Amino acid sequence: MEYVLKTDNLCKNYRRVQVLKNLNMNIPKGSIYGFVGRNGAGKTTLIRLICGLQKPTSGSFDLLGVNSQNTKELSTARERIGAIIENPAIYKNMTAVDNLKMQYLNLGLPDYEGIDELLELVGLSDTGKKHAGHFSLGMRQRLAIAIALCGNPDFIILDEPVNGLDPEGIIEIRELILKLNHEKGITILISSHILDELSRIATHYGFIDNGCIVREMSAEELEKECSKCIRIKISDSEIFARTMDEQHIEYKMIDDSTADVFSDVTISKLAITLANAGCELIKAEEKDESLESFYLSLLGGENNAENA
Amino acid sequence: MPKMLEGDIKRFCASKRVWIAIIALTVSYAIFYAVVFFLVYRAMDVDINDITVDTNIGSFAEVVSVFTAGFAAIFTAGDFTDGTIKNRLAVGNKRSSIFLSACIFSAIVSAAVQLLDALVLIIISLILPGGFSMPLEIFLVNISVYIYSGCALAVFFTALVFIFGGTKAAYIIPAITALAFKVTSTVILNYLYPPDGVSNLSDIKIKAYTVIDRFVPFMYLQGTPRWDGMSYATGIAVLTVISLAVGLIVFNRRELS
Lengths: 308, 257
Fold this sequence. Notes:
heterodimer; A: alpha/beta; Rossmann fold; Alpha-Beta Plaits; 2 domains; 6-stranded mixed β-sheet; 11 helices; elongated; B: mainly alpha; about 0% strand; globular
């Protein structure tokens, strides 16, 4: 499998504080990689290292096949990426078109071809002479994405792209990200707290905690882990547990009267089996574990970080 | 780097408030100065044919240097405050290119403002009765000293912004430095060239102040040029090289958030 970004025991210290600890991450080409972690986990720090705002304390990374130790070629590789780092970085006293022209100049592009198409793609083609400082937050985010798209990058990094947006804005950004990935084949790294939103678009996930990648997985693997179950209420947990074990049915006790059954069972047959054993099945409902609860269960406890 | 320089120029042109302020500053100061001088000399019963423009060109050169400090702070530091410097770095531009582009741009703006001032002064000299007292050739040499000195100071102040960029110090330190230059230069000139011609300084102090007057470009903007060309070239070159070197070294190592 080809990767646009691979990190190798990446470490970053700020004086005595180690923010990234032997971080190993792999972003497959063509994926939408959801980068998930709590505040202070190290998400933005990693993004800063990739974008050249800061340097690693130790370790390295490969960006589009170029190792970070090779600084000259790394500069060339960075011409093929776009990024929004924390907040949209735009010139407030310039129009949307002028902001894109500035980025074209930053990239050393010979002409301004493609600017109109970019603005149309992000839905800012009718802003005219309006200065970016008068844009709404959603418009600024979209302008920042357009800036990141200048030069037809192969890899885009979006740090909290939907922060502060209203639901309509979030939907617009989501649809834009999907369009960029599906139609243009751009690999996208999204760091976000809004797990529900990520779960709608990400093809791969990286969970970071205390500067380490706790888990990397594809969306399919995550779906299997966030398995469906039947949550049932019973009258006697002891009889229930004995019966489940005899039947070799996978289950988990939540409390004295509640249990999750993971095996594929027929409710009516289960109710009859339990009733014959002397346990009443009071209530049954289907339940999915959301990304949110998976995230909480993954990052719960003191030491979840992988050892290198 | 040429494309980034072009970008800085475009950004400057888009900042209407900045260049309108530059034009307003230049024209109003020159006119104000000429008018005030005219009125003051009239009040002192000085023959108006003795009122010339060129003997006071140095006063505006000093104002331009202070302006350059403010310009570098606001315009260049804005790149850090707005976060737009991230856009340049993230797409692979080298820090040295970003820094050099900003220095060159600041120097261009400083030179342009000095030239504009010279043009305004020439126009005013056509109006005032005294006109020019010095030959045009010498006037142009003096303007050249101001321009090059202003450029060296522009590079210096831009380097300060890059060293402190992203912090409040990036706005404050250039301003404080310009103010310190002004105060120091006034003090040094008063000691070296006292009105009554009598200096009470020790030999060592006189030598030290003379070195400063001779080789620090900010002193070149005080009054009319009074040293030889080699001294000016040395002072300008040294300040420029030190500013570039220190600015490059510090900015290349800076961690940006």
